[in-house]
């Protein structure tokens, strides 16, 4: 299976300079393909283009999928790259957007509960065409979220990725500078590979903007940036530790204030001013009280001594 994938990727690289070559070719000094794949941001003319499925691609706009003439999916990315076995970097951007776009979206569809964007980047007559499938879920008033992303080859799923916090509230779009399956910011964590597939794939979407359902005017709504809509585990852990530390400091401060209050209380209790009437008693009365008790104590002690000697 790996040999078939390499054959397909090599054929795509040799037939189109939109692809990024493998690391071996880079070391051999083939800079033409590298320059074609690592060029700057794609510039597009104000002329629309038609995909194989007949859907219009505005050069300055996203890929649109409609249901009953109403857009249900909007998809845009500044760059789409796929990596196979950490060697071959495939740039699919120009095949998806621009005047030379050849991507086919015929297998995309929408319903009330879910939507699927199917991007076929190869010739539809080629049984080994590489495709990407994005599955969106509809949460009603809560908006939409990306459930999973799949890479397909020869019509079968080669790799699947979950989606962590990729979505937006109703009437908003999702935007992020980098959505990738590669760590450390893996918003697309890899799922267990399908049976019989052990290949390692990675996908990266740079400058991603996505919207599903509740699309007004066929254009992206106000975007919710991933920097504010998602929080990494490290950030959440840091916030939790800061909260715990704040609670500990507050408790320590409370105990210090309480102990100081107790000290002041006991000092005031032990002060002579706290019992003025007792200290105002005459000294003679105290002496008489001691004298009246002294003989009794002496007699008891004498009785005890007497009993011991007998």
UniProtKB/TrEMBL annotation:
The keyword Transmembrane helix applies. Pfam families: Ac45-VOA1_TM (PF20520), VAS1_LD (PF05827). One of its GO terms (molecular function) is ATPase activator activity. Residues 71-213 form the V-type proton ATPase subunit S1 luminal domain. Residues 232-265 form the V-type proton ATPase subunit S1/VOA1 transmembrane domain. GO terms for cellular component: proton-transporting V-type ATPase complex. The chain crosses the membrane at residues 234-259. It is found in: Membrane. Keywords: Membrane, Transmembrane, Transmembrane helix. InterPro entries: Ac45_acc_su, VAS1/VOA1_TM, VAS1_LD. Gene3D superfamilies: 2.40.160.110. It is a single-pass membrane protein. One of its GO terms (biological process) is regulation of cellular pH. It comes from the Eukaryota. Belongs to the vacuolar ATPase subunit S1 family. This is V-type proton ATPase subunit S1-like protein isoform X2. It comes from Octodon degus. The gene is Atp6ap1l.
